[in-house]
Amino acid sequence: MTNLENDLAKILITREQLQQRIAELGEAISRDYAGKDLLLVCILKGGILFLSDLMRAIRIPHAIDFMAISSYGGTRTESSGVVRILMDLNTNITNRNVLIVEDIVDTGRTLAYITEMLKTRDPASLKICTLLNKPSRREVHVPLDYVGFDIPNEFVVGYGLDYDEFYRNLPFIGVLKTELYAR
Ligand code: 5GP
Q: How far apart are CA 47 and CA 101, in angstroms?
């Protein structure tokens, strides 16, 4: 066991479960967007591992772009939903079919903000693909078009998700020991 793994209370989603589900999502996206001009928009930093596996599971031509955000205030384990754009897209999304690739939807505030902002740029379509979803925590309704896993209300790390910038490199989703963080 590595030190990082010692910090976990449990593994919630294994590497194999992630890869299996991402293959299914890639199939569904390939079917739904066949013949369309698809642009995947990855929300940094949490979405990078998901994007890199998902795009390899998508069999149709597509482009990718990135947007980096940070949320103001909040705590180290909860977002405030007040979003600051640290890096905007390079691509003009007007008339493109945009699929947002996100790591996790919790209260929904971050994605509500991002989708409202992107809609003003008149994409042909705007949909959301999230690896993880915490339905019990939702405060703002955001329509989720593709969801990898619904998970309980636990703070998770790994596979792109961090706690204070660490644990992103774990190849699975785990729950951090509660004594390691204060909500
Ligand atoms: P929301 O605005 O939906 O409440 O929060 C979304 C953002 O909060 C995610 O993109 C992620 O950065 C962070 N977040 C929410 N829940 C978790 C979690 O369980 N683990 C980690 N590492 N980040 C989370």
A: 6
Q: Which domains does the chain have, with CATH numbers?
A: 3-178 (3.40.50.2020)
46 lines ligand 1 (CB under 6 A): yes
Alpha-carbon span 4 to 121, nearest angstrom: 41
Q: What is the pLDDT of residues 121-164, one digit of tens each?
A: 999 999 999 999 999 999 999 999 999 999 999 999 999 999 99
The number of residues making up the chain comes to 183
Residue in the structure block whose two tokens are 């949909």:
127
Q: What is the pLDDT of residues 68-96, one digit of tens each?
A: 998 766 666 666 667 889 999 999 999 99
Q: Are 175 and 158 in contact (CB under 8 A)?
A: no
Q: What is this structure's pTM? A: 0.94
Pick from 50, 103, 106 the residue to mutate for probing ligand 1's pocket: most ligand atoms within 8 Å of its CB.
106
CA of 105 to the centre of ligand 1 (A): 6
Counting atoms of ligand 1 from 1, which one is nearest the CA of 113? Answer: 2
Q: Which residue in the list 65, 106, 150, 162 is annotated as catalytic?
A: 106
Cβ-contact 145, 128 below 8 angstroms: yes
Annotated catalytic residue 122: no
* Residue 36 alpha carbon to ligand 1 centre in Å: 30
